[in-house]
Amino acid sequence: MLLNPFKLWKIYRAASTVVATLNQEGNMSKKLWTSKTFWFQVLSAAAALSGVVPLPPEILAVVVGVINIGLRLVTDKPVEV
Question: Is residue 12 part of a domain?
């Protein structure tokens, strides 16, 4: 049994209106400068470039990676630029 194309169009329009409304109300993104992950990356890059951290680069990369994974796990909002 085929549906009438006009009925399908009506269903599509109603669904797209609902999705657009949910996207507008559910937009829970945050600005880039409020991201813990962003600031951790900035600080870790500055520390690595200045030589403040007394660790070999290989170990420092692993530590930064593990901390980034931890920050990613506690993040619940997307970031917008």
Answer: no
